[in-house]
Design a protein that fits this description.
3 domains, alpha/beta, DNA-binding, 39% helix, homodimer, 6-stranded mixed β-sheet, Rossmann fold, 434 Repressor (Amino-terminal Domain)
Chain lengths: 353, 353
DNA sequence: CATAGTACCGTAAACGTTTACGGTAGCCGT
DNA sequence: ACGGCTACCGTAAACGTTTACGGTACTATG
């Protein structure tokens, strides 16, 4: 062991220790072909022994890449309306893929006070990430065009109107709408209410449109007064139920499109002595609470971890450095949801409905 | 405008545009004293005009600092019991402070499959962040010693047994335990159950210990069979209720220390025809659902955004470059929770209890 | 033996910043 | 007129990597 200049740092230290050049060390570490297998072995060994880890700043500076993938999300959950474990679970899946490629996932948290596009602009300007995953996609989302123009790899969780040809994955709201409507109609329901978020998130449009179509296929119309908008949280669900109960001509069934509104919805019904599954049919989205409501909520459930995996693979398939690993990744796809049968939609009407 | 070499990039481009040296540009941008106020103005102006943003890799490489603060958390909520909404709110507060100092917050997501210490080791070796916030602190948490040895600024959310002298903030579980026990005893309860997470998270020990003390102060003992362990989620709450109901000598009150278990707990009670507030007193932690349970849960609520602010300030007060901004930041402190009165603890017993 | 080819390795430039150092010009006081 | 001070600015080195390029030694081929 060379004692002479042990104060050297980084790759130079390692090179000195092995008495070879830093170029060779780098090549050995990065799996380049031009290096003897025996020396490579020695380098690898010495690297773990000395605990050498390449400095990311140096590497990034040199090759203009950071090995970081950013997952952009908004803080302040009233905006997204996802359940409490939604992102955690998705992250888990995303990370499972990234870790195979030495990529690090970081959550980019856009504060509720800042404009998402401004935030994204800053992130990009700083060259923070090699690729991006966007959530809370808006119907018209300027972020998409922004990234596309700059050739920055990205995938969105959620469709928009402006993403033609751009990679996205989305939940299968159409499938949910179709299946739920069919199910309710089959049970004799004719007057069916639906919900949607209050803001411009695209899923609202998609969901309501498909509900309308599905009803039309049965010769039914979607009454405009039965489309309830609300903040996608418990209070919103409570409000929806109050509004619904106040109607002259109440619906006999309702579809709740957000995860978190069911609890508030149930509560308002309960206060009015109206019981899901007996007095009104309710179908919602899965959340950890769904099974513990009375009665258990019939809902559509999503495999979140798998969704995360698909998101990661889709993104990587658009990145030149990784695309050969994922030749057949989904680029535009909706992610299926499975029906979890509860008792909240047990109400069956006869033909007179 | 110099057309000659517009293909230059970064600071050089800016310097060329202004016909001054890159050194001066850098000094102007970074608020150094040795620069004419007039030129500084021109530089700043040109910078926004050309949309110049300093490259982070270059800067990091030079000054060995990244301007990034990492917030480490575990994905997979079965572990921490804290979900998206908890962290989002805390992040919002943290970010409010950091943005004043051009610091970026990134969430470091340790997958549920990886050992947190290993993960942290990688993060540190890569020189990813200038400082760290640790969550899900274990009773014996090797990460603390690891960071302390390397003189890496950090603060933990949650105490441990091994953090003597290290900065931490924690929720005031003692205060909650004390207030809740006092409240219940004042209402005549003598046989009070408590819960705790199933794993080695420190809060379990702290909470139960203080409950014991608080009871002792009233001349009461904490029956060991009334300490319920569970996963910190809805299913755990359900299980606890089932176990509780199966006891020969049921408690008349219970304290739920985790946020998300109340829903499951309520459900199991409901199935058995036992109503909170009438047949058993229940006190829990605030969650978005708490108010929409029947009856509304009496719970302890936390100002999460303020907690985030405090966490950020505490961390910065330990970092040489920022400490002068936060001379009086809290270094070790518990964060108070406020009581939100519901009806779930309305049950009052007479002296015969 | 000369040449070409191969396998491996060293050298040095480059990435975009920050900053220590030195230099110039103007000004003031003697 | 001169030295010293101030205010400002330019130069160049340094941070830790990766990688194009060239070089050496050896082998194979003619």
């Amino acid at each position: 062991m060379k004692e002479e200049a042990l104060r050297m740092k980084g790759i130079r230290r390692l090179a000195q220790h092995l008495d070879i050049s830093i170029g060779t060390v780098s090549r050995a570490l990065n799996g380049r072909p031009d290096v003897n297998e025996e020396t490579r072995r020695r380098v690898l060994e010495a690297a773990t022994e000395l605990g050498y880890v390449p400095n990311q700043s140096g590497r990034s500076l040199r090759q203009g890449t950071t090995n970081i993938i950013g997952f952009m999300m908004q803080t302040g959950t009233e905006i997204t309306g996802q359940g409490d474990t939604f992102f955690m679970s998705v992250f888990d899946g995303v990370q499972a893929v990234f870790s195979r490629h030495q990529l690090d996932l970081v959550a980019l948290l856009c504060s509720s006070e800042e404009d998402p596009s401004d935030y994204l602009r800053r992130v990009v300007a700083r060259g923070f990430a090699d690729g991006l995953i966007l959530s809370a996609t808006q119907r018209h989302d300027p972020r998409i065009e922004f990234l596309a123009e700059r050739n920055i790899p990205f995938v969105t969780l959620g469709r928009s109107l402006t993403d033609a040809g751009r990679p996205w994955l989305d939940l299968d709201f159409e499938g949910m709408a179709q299946a739920a409507i069919d199910r309710l109609v089959a049970r004799g329901h004719r007057r069916i209410a639906v919900t949607r978020p209050h803001d411009d998130v695209n899923l609202g449009y998609i969901f309501v449109d498909r509900c309308r179509e599905a009803l039309a296929a049965h010769g039914l119309a979607l009454d405009e007064e039965l489309i309830f908008r609300s903040t996608p949280n418990e209070a919103g669900g409570y409000q929806i139920a109050r509004d619904l109960l106040a109607l002259e001509d109440r619906p006999t069934a309702i579809l709740l499109v957000n995860e978190t509104i069911a609890v508030g919805f149930y509560q308002a019904l309960s206060e009015a002595g109206v019981r899901p599954g007996r007095d009104i049919a309710v179908i919602g989205r899965y959340s950890p609470q769904a099974h513990f409501l009375s009665p258990p909520l019939t809902c559509f459930r999503l495999k979140l971890r798998e969704l995360g995996i698909a998101l990661a693979e889709t993104l990587l398939s658009t990145m030149p450095a990784f695309k050969h690993h994922y030749p057949q990744a989904l680029v535009n796809a909706v992610w299926p949801m499975e029906l979890v049968e509860g008792e909240s939609d047990a109400l069956t009407l006869d033909a007179a409905g």
